[in-house]
Amino acid sequence: MTTPVPDSGHEARRSVDRQDILDEQDIARALTRIAHEIVERNKGADDLVVLGIPRRGVPLAHRLATQIAQAEGAEIPAGALDATMYRDDLRLRPARALEHTDIPPGGVDGKVVVLVDDVLFSGRTIRAALTALDDVGRPRTIRLAVLVDRGHRELPIRADHVGKNLPTAMDESVQVLLAEVDGRDAVLVTSAEGDRP
Amino acid sequence: MNRHLLSAADLDRDQATLLLDTAAEMAQLTEGRSVKKLPTLRGRAVVNLFFEDSTRTRTSFELAAKRLSADVVNFSAKGSSLSKGESLKDTALTLEAMGADGVVVRHWASGAPHRLAHSGWIRSSVVNAGDGTHEHPTQALLDAYTLRRHLGSLEGRRITIVGDVLHSRVARSNVLLLATLGAEVILVGPPTLLPVGVDNWPCQVGFELDPALAKADAVMMLRVQRERMNAAFFPSAREYSRRYGLDARRFGLLPENALVLHPGPMNRGMEITAEVADSDRSVIVEQVTNGVYVRMAVLYLLLAGGPQ
């Protein structure tokens, strides 16, 4: 999820100031480490199901599933879980388009579900995803993997696997770019709301 | 999205596509799930205001609203203040006082939903569930959704709509929506059952059914509306059936993969034979299932969000 920055009102808007925090190689290394952590924690690849939260969690989930499959020599089901219908801020904005939900054919009952998102911020998206998962089935365990944890949690939620802990100010915005969606891999921090390149 | 859904003409191509895509996600989110319910409209009230008999449309809207966790209240003309001569305005003011968030209205008078939406009587969103001989936009959406599921993109597809176009709000909404989505629509019916001004609709018009079948990707049979047949529109039911009914011989003229649609309720033996209605290329039962998904999408997009 991209997190838009609230306009600071009286303060004149600063010029967009981009900083590349992670490049393509950093992201690849972080994902490799997370993939291994997931397997280590799970003591193997048994019963793993990797579900990405749209939009950029989905390609990350597929990359993780591929890496785990290569390391363990087992097929890892990967899919997508859209939590839009379960969000607590629906009424704060006009109704938005739904993203695609794709639960692998084996379902989630009794499985170890790893939820994957690009940026962990307030925790509200994850809360919505946990509720959404309730209506899909009853996993044995749910874990959370994120590429970037930028802090500022508003709910008692934490990630089990983090690519990079990135302390940020509230008025900064963290953007994750992925080749599947944006044409290249990078993590950027902008200090004022800027357009996605 | 607009605040109301009153006519298929309210939707441009992007909005119509958004609605159909959302309906597809609704299907994905409920089909095969043990919990067929989403919490999205919790605490919102949807009123079904039906001045005309309808089972399938009302039930479909009711189920759609309930699957989104909205509270549903049914107002029907029979056995309510509506049959005691209450005006549309007073009914509307009552609903407003009760705090309805969405009003789904079916009315025998064309334009009643428009009046309800734009008179300033109520603040809720209004969905037209069929008004007189004017429009029935959610029926057109579910037809388009069903066609799209089987045919893919509707761009350049040929859809033949047959029968009583004059009284058919289904035909009117379908012509508008299918044209918006890029399909080529051909209306076929007896001249007495085609409305004045049909030449200005975004479609072709014909009086003979046989030639309109050979290239059709889908054929939609309209119900002969006996309750509206107050003049001699055609000599006899038998003659209508012979000239415009879809029987086994005409079914044979259709291309191999062409679909058969009917908005229901069917008059078997009149506009469609039982044999055709029950064939494996008939998607009439699927239309009903899809109706729930399309109406969930409409209610979600109109009611779930906050102000701009």
Q: CATH H level of the largest domain in chain B: which superfamily?
A: Aspartate/ornithine carbamoyltransferase
CATH class of the largest domain in chain B, anyone? Alpha Beta
Task: Determine Rg of chain B (CA atoms, Å).
Answer: 19 Å
Shape of chain A: globular
How much strand of chain A? 15-25%
Give a brief rundown of this model.
The complex is a heterodimer of chains A (197) and B (308). Chain A is built from four helices and eight strands. Chain A is an alpha/beta fold and 197 residues long.
Explain this structure to me?
The complex is a heterodimer of chains A (197) and B (308). Chain A has 197 residues and is an alpha/beta fold. Chain A contains four helices and eight strands, in the order E-H-E-H-E-E-H-E-E-E-H-E. In chain A, helix 1 (24-42) crosses helix 2. Chain A is globular. The model of chain A is unreliable at 5-15 (pLDDT under 50). Chain B contains ten helices and nine strands. In chain B, the strands form two sheets. Chain B has a five-stranded parallel sheet with strand order 7-6-5-8-9, with helices on one face. In chain B, helix 1 packs across helix 10 (284-303). In chain B, strand 5, helix 6 and strand 6 (184-188) form a beta-alpha-beta unit. Chains A and B meet through helix 3 of A and helix 1 and helix 10 of B.
How are the secondary structure elements laid out?
The complex is a heterodimer of chains A (197) and B (308).
Chain A: E1 18-22, H1 24-42, E2 48-52, H2 57-72, E3 78-80, E4 112-120, H3 124-136, E5 141-149, E6 161-165, E7 173-177, H4 179-182, E8 186-190
Parallel strand pairs in A: 2-3, 2-4, 4-5, 5-6
Antiparallel strand pairs in A: 1-8, 7-8
Helix pairs in contact in A: 1-2
Chain B: H1 13-30, E1 45-50, H2 56-67, E2 71-76, H3 88-98, E3 102-107, H4 112-118, E4 125-131, H5 137-151, E5 158-162, H6 169-180, E6 184-188, E7 204-206, E8 218-221, H7 237-244, H8 248-253, E9 259-261, H9 274-277, H10 284-303
Parallel strand pairs in B: 1-2, 1-3, 3-4, 5-6, 5-8, 6-7, 8-9
Helix pairs in contact in B: 1-5, 1-10, 2-10, 5-6, 5-10
